[in-house]
Amino acid sequence: MTNTVIETGTEAEFFARGRRVAQQADRGEPIPETHIVTFEDPADLARLLTAARIGLFQAIKAEPASITGIAARLHRDRSAVKRDVDALLHAGLVSVETAVNAGHGNHKVVRAVASRVDLHVLID
């Protein structure tokens, strides 16, 4: 697993970071395994990282499971957990993988994609 950074930033900062990474690659330097999710508007970040979704992410990180299993463990409605998993999946914080049930077909397992998530928010 890699580290994930969730931050606010401008388009100019995004491209400046890209240039720095390209320069590192040109010099043959190792590029850190960090997944960065940047929001221009802090309100968009706040809509993604609700208290319920943070708790959900922590539960998934502690023990990957199916959406039904996670919902039962958290005592939440399955459809609400599914919506929150979809939002975390879209942001790149979790993955959904198909696993084989011995003799019973397949099921989907939700896993955290990062071992660590750092949150950086600057409100101007």
TrEMBL record:
Q: Cross-referenced SUPFAM superfamilies, in alphabetical order?
A: Winged helix' DNA-binding domain
Source organism superkingdom: Bacteria
Query: What InterPro entries would the database entry show?
Result: WH-like_DNA-bd_sf, WH_DNA-bd_sf
Cross-referenced Pfam families: HVO_A0114
Q: Report what the protein is called.
A: Transcriptional regulator
Organism listed in the record: Paraburkholderia aspalathi
